[in-house]
Amino acid sequence: MSTADRDAAPPGAVHLADPPFWDAYDPRFPDSDGEPMADNQTQYKWMVTIAEGLEALLADRPDALIACDLLWYFDPEDPRRCIAPDVFVALGRPKAPRHSYKEWIEGHAPQVVFEIHSPSNTAARMRRKLETYDGRGVEEYYYYFPEDPSGRLDGWLRGPSGLEPIASTDGWTSPRLGVTFETPPEEDALILRGPDGEPFQHVQDIIRDRKLARRIAEIERRRREQAEADAREDRSRRAQAEADAREARARAEWLEALLRERGIDPG
Fold this sequence. Notes:
This protein is α+β, with helices and mostly antiparallel strands. It contains five helices and eleven strands, in the order H-H-E-E-E-E-E-H-E-H-E-E-E-E-E-H. It has helices spanning 3-8, 41-57, 103-106, 123-136, 203-261, and strands spanning 64-68, 72-73, 82-83, 87-91, 101-102, 112-116, 140-144, 153-159, 162-165, 180-182, 191-193. A hairpin with an 8-residue loop joins strand 10 (180-182) and strand 11 (191-193). The longest helix is centred in the C-terminal third of the chain and has 59 residues, at 203-261. It starts with a helix and ends in a 6-residue tail after the last helix.
C-alpha cells in the first residue's frame, strides 16, 4: 500500500502489516496471555498432532487458517475479551502468520475449535469456554480427554438452538473438515482420519516412520549395489570362461595342425 493510499484511508481504519504478518502488531492486544501453551506433554502432543494433521489435510487451501494456542480477540474496545483455543480452524481466512486473531479484522469467528483436557481445565472454566464458543458462532467444538480410559471425546455441532451435543463422536465425521473420529475405549488413543482414510500421526511417529523409511531405503540401496556387483562379477566370470574356452580351442587347433604337418593323424 502506498503512502497516498494510507493517507486516504478513513479514520479508524485498520492497516494490515506487510508479510509475513497478516495483522499489524497492536500493543493493546498482546500476543500472549501469560499462560503456558500446554499444561503437560500429553496435552501438547495432541495440540500439535491435531494442528499439524489439519495443516497437512488443508495444505492446498490458501483460505484455511489453522492456529494452535493463538489468542482470539473479539472486542476491539476491550482486550480482556479474548480466548486461546488449543486449536482452531478459520475457513475463508488466509494462512499468513498473525500476532493474534482479531475477529473484527478477520470478519468472522473460527468455525471449528478443539480443546484438550488438562488438570487446569475445571468444569466451570470449560463451561465458560463452551458459552464463549457458542456465543461467537463456532459451528463445531470438540473436547478430548486423553487420560480418560473410556476414550472420551465430547463434541458439539451448531443447530437451531446453538451448539448442541453430538450424541456419539465415535465414527462421527466433521461436516466442515471431513475428518472422522474414532474413540477406542482406552487412554491416549483418539484416531482422526482424513477423507482418504489416513490417520493423523503424532509428530514422534512421523519422525520414527521417516527414520524407518530412510533405513529401508539404505538397505534397498545396498541390496541393489550388491546385486549389481554380483552381476558384474558373474559377467566377468562368464567372459573369462569364454576367453579360456577360445584359448583352449585355438591351442587344440594349433596342436592338431602341427601334428598333421609332421604326418601324424591327430584322430
